[in-house]
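Anyone up for a design puzzle?
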C-alpha cells in the first residue's frame, strides 16, 4: 500500500466522500454573493449589429434572430443573471419564426417598430412599442412581421433557473406556423379592463391569461396617478403587471413591473434576495449597484444581481424616466427565501 492511499483524506476522496469541515464556509455563507456582476448593455451599441444580422442571417437558418445579453461572469452557458436571461430579437417584414414551445417561461417587451405579431397557443397577439407580451411555460409560440419595417423587442426568459432545476423541455411544432384558433388579441380585450373579469373563463395553469399588456393601458395608469402619489422612496411610482386570477405575478417564475421615476428622482438604496433585469423604456439616469455606477439611456438593459445594494436616479430635472424590470422574486417568495433590507440597516 503506498503512502497516498494511506492518507485518510485520500481514502475518503476515493470512496466518493468529502470532509464537510473543509467546505463549510463556502457552502453555508453568511450571506449571498452572486456569481453574476452588475452590468449594462447599451442599445445604441447593439442596434447596428441587430440590423447587420438581418442581412447576414435568414430566419430559416436560425430558430430566432437574437443577441443574448451575457453577464461577463456567466459566459458558459450564457446567462444574464443566475436565474434570468435577456435577449434582443429582431424580425423584418415577410419573415416568420418557427413555432415551438419550452418549459421556460418567456415574455417580450416591445422596443421599436410596428406590424409584428406573435401567436401564443392559437391566439394572435399584436405588438406595439411599450407592450408586454407573455409566452408562459409550454405555450406554443411563433412570430411574424406583417408590417413595413423591422420590429425589435426585449426577450426575457427564466431558462437559467429552469436548467438549474433540470426541468427544461423543448419541442418544435409540426408546421412552421401554428393555426390560429381564437380571435386576435382576445385575451387582452377580455381581461385588460382591470377589475372587470370575464365570468365565463376559468384559470388555465399558473400564469396570467393576458397575451398583451398594452403600453396604452400602462401609460393611462401613470397619467391617471399623475403626481398625486409619491410611490416608494426606493422605486418611485412602480406598477406591477398582475395575473387577473390571483392578483399576483404574471408568471410563477417571473414578475414584471414598470416604474416612473419623476424628474430629479433620487431613490433610496436597498437590497433583496432576488435578481432583477431592467430595461429603460424612456429617459436617462443612473443606477448605483454595489458601488458600480451604471449610466443608462433609452432602451439600455442592465442587470442587478441578488443581494447587491442598488439605487436609481433620474438624470433629468424635467423629464420622467420610465423603466421596465423583471425579477425572480416570485420564486424566492414561494420558497420562503425572499429577504429585503434597506441599505442603512447593515452594510
Ligand atoms: O422568441 O421564442 O430570446 O425561444 C430565446 C429563446 C427568444 C423565442 C429568445 C426563445 C425565444
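Challenge accepted. My sequence:
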Amino acid at each position: 500500500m503506498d503512502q497516498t492511499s494511506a492518507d485518510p483524506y485520500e481514502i475518503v476522496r476515493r470512496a466518493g466522500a468529502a470532509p464537510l469541515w473543509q467546505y463549510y464556509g463556502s457552502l453555508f455563507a453568511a450571506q449571498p454573493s452572486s456569481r453574476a456582476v452588475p452590468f449594462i448593455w447599451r442599445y445604441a451599441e447593439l442596434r447596428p449589429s441587430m440590423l447587420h444580422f438581418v442581412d447576414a442571417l435568414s430566419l430559416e437558418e436560425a430558430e430566432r434572430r437574437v443577441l443574448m445579453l451575457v453577464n461577463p461572469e456567466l459566459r458558459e452557458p450564457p446567462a444574464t443573471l443566475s436565474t434570468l436571461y435577456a435577449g434582443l430579437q429582431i424580425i423584418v417584414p415577410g419573415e416568420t419564426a418557427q413555432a415551438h414551445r419550452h418549459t421556460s417561461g418567456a415574455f417580450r417587451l416591445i422596443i421599436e417598430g410596428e406590424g409584428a405579431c406573435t401567436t401564443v397557443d392559437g391566439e394572435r397577439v399584436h405588438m406595439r412599442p411599450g407592450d408586454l407580451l407573455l409566452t408562459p411555460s409550454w405555450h406554443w409560440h411563433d412570430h411574424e412581421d406583417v408590417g413595413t419595417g423591422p420590429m425589435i423587442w426585449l426577450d426575457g426568459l427564466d431558462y437559467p433557473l429552469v436548467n438549474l432545476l433540470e426541468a427544461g423541455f423543448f419541442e418544435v411544432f409540426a408546421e412552421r406556423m401554428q393555426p390560429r384558433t381564437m380571435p386576435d388579441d382576445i385575451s387582452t380585450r377580455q381581461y385588460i379592463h382591470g377589475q372587470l373579469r370575464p365570468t365565463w373563463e376559468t384559470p388555465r395553469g399558473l400564469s396570467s391569461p393576458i397575451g398583451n399588456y398594452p403600453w396604452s393601458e400602462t401609460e393611462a395608469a401613470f397619467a391617471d396617478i399623475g403626481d398625486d402619489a409619491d410611490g416608494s422612496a426606493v422605486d418611485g411610482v412602480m406598477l406591477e403587471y398582475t395575473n387577473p386570477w390571483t392578483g399576483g405575478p404574471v408568471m410563477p417564475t417571473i414578475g414584471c413591473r414598470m416604474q416612473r421615476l419623476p424628474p430629479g428622482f433620487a431613490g433610496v438604496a436597498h437590497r433583496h434576495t432576488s435578481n432583477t433585469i431592467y430595461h429603460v423604456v424612456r429617459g436617462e439616469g443612473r443606477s448605483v449597484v454595489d458601488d458600480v455606477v451604471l449610466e443608462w439611456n433609452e432602451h439600455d438593459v442592465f442587470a442587478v444581481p441578488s443581494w447587491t445594494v442598488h439605487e436609481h436616479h433620474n438624470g433629468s430635472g424635467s423629464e420622467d424616466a420610465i423603466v421596465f424590470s423583471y425579477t425572480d422574486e416570485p420564486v424566492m417568495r414561494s420558497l420562503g427565501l425572499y429577504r429585503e433590507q434597506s441599505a442603512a440597516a447593515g452594510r
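A detail worth pointing out: The mean pLDDT is 96.
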